Amino acid sequence: MKWIAPALAYLAVFLGLFAFHSAWAALLGFHAAILGSLWIARPNIPLSILLKNSNKKWIAVSLLVCGSSGFALFFLWNVFGIASDLPAQVEALGLNAQTWFPFIAYFALVNPFIEEYFWRGYLGNATKSLHISDFLYAGFHALILIHKVPIVSIFFAVAALALAGWFWRQLAREEGGGLLAPALGHMAADFTILVAICKMTT
């Protein structure tokens, strides 16, 4: 079940985007797949690790490094070759001036904790090298980027996200398994990236 769970998460994102044409369906289906998999597996990992932190410097490092993601996207928007019709694509997924705020709020406040528990907790590993979970975490983002950026940019994004997954695992390792620093960094990345996309498409 442990390695079937990512496939279910990928399938949920695929169906949400390409069958239901809804950002909300993709996100909520993704979370349902993860939570359902965790409910079946019932890993012996307390939820309290999401709030575990032994050194506040790792929170500061995580917030600083990851919070720069959205700013980089905003200022390098044209470099990534983002599709000129992205505003129409985003609106077709149900994201517009009225729906962006609740989507960003839910994504930034809920998603990081679900993902960190799943990718870095349940599927994580204490190795200092890159791990398969880093690539599995990064890979589903390619589905989101199809038709929105060139293939070269998709490969770049997946590589960068694999490194982000590795970085968050190293923070968790330094924290003895604690996921607060990774979750807050993930939150900063999600928030700034979504705000940048909202700003550039509405």
Commentary on this structure:
This protein has 202 residues and is mainly alpha-helical. It has one domain (48-201). 70% of the residues lie in helices and 0% in strands. Helix 1 (5-18) packs antiparallel against helix 2 (23-41), helix 6 (111-122) crosses helix 10 and helix 9 runs antiparallel to helix 10 (180-201). The longest helix has 24 residues, at 151-174.
Short description:
This protein is mostly helical. Helices cover 70% and strands 0% of the residues. The chain starts with a helix and ends with a helix.
Distance between the terminal alpha carbons, to the nearest Å? 41 Å
Helix content: 55-70%
- Compute the gyration radius: what is it? 16 Å
Structural class: mainly alpha
User: Topology as H/E string?
Assistant: HHHHHHHHHH
Number of helical segments? Answer: 10
Domain module count = 1
How does the SSE layout of this entry go?
Elements: H1 5-18, H2 23-41, H3 56-75, H4 86-92, H5 100-109, H6 111-122, H7 132-139, H8 141-145, H9 151-174, H10 180-201
Helix pairs in contact: 1-2, 2-6, 3-10, 5-10, 6-10, 7-9, 9-10
List keywords for this structure.
202 residues; mainly alpha; 0% strand; globular
